[in-house]
Amino acid sequence: MEIKEKILPAVDDAFARLYDAENLEKLRAGVRRDLENELKYSQARSIRTQVIRGLLARVNFDLPETAVAQETRNAVYDIVRQNTKRGVTREMIEQQKEEIYSAATYNAKERVKLAFLIQRIAEKENLQVSQEEILKHAQGLAALYQIPFEKFLKDLQKRNGLPELYEQILHEKVLDMLEKNAAIEDVPPGTSPAQGANPS
Fold first, then answer.
1. Where are the domains of the chain?
2. Residue 112: per-residue pLDDT
3. Are the C-beta atoms of residues 165 and 156 closer than 8 Å to each other?
4. Cα–Cα distance measured from residue 57 to residue 183, given in angstroms and rounded to the nearest whole number
5. 76-85, 118-127, 187-196: which has the highest mean pLDDT?
């Protein structure tokens, strides 16, 4: 029986050059920067999620049934489309239709409620979106999808997508404002914010 030992390459400047770094020190600095950026992005997403959860938990009101029904249809379509993309068969989707509908209804209620709250906060705080902001956002999306800006803008106008862009930008503005004004508390890993709070 032959025993093989895996020999790892030496971590030196030659190794760094395999990854397009000038030397080992630059490679380490690049890896550190990437990890720091990933951590910042993850923390920002976590804060955004907590702000949304806090907002939804603090306000209760009756939701318009037609808006919830429309959003539920959209959510069902999204769930089915995602599952189909992942290779889930029509039969399996059919077997899980009650769970899909239940999840879609919950998501729809959350989205309708959040959209209403965002609109009310924007009105109260006098937050608005300018034509320039919409065009700038559209340019960014066109570049991201590698579509010529004029074509992207025409497609948007054809499918009446400009109001959707307006809503997205307004949504971001409101959440940015809420984040800036939120009381953020660091808690040790593995504890909830309530557990990490100092007793008064």
1. 10-58, 60-124, 127-181
2. 93
3. yes
4. 16
5. 118-127
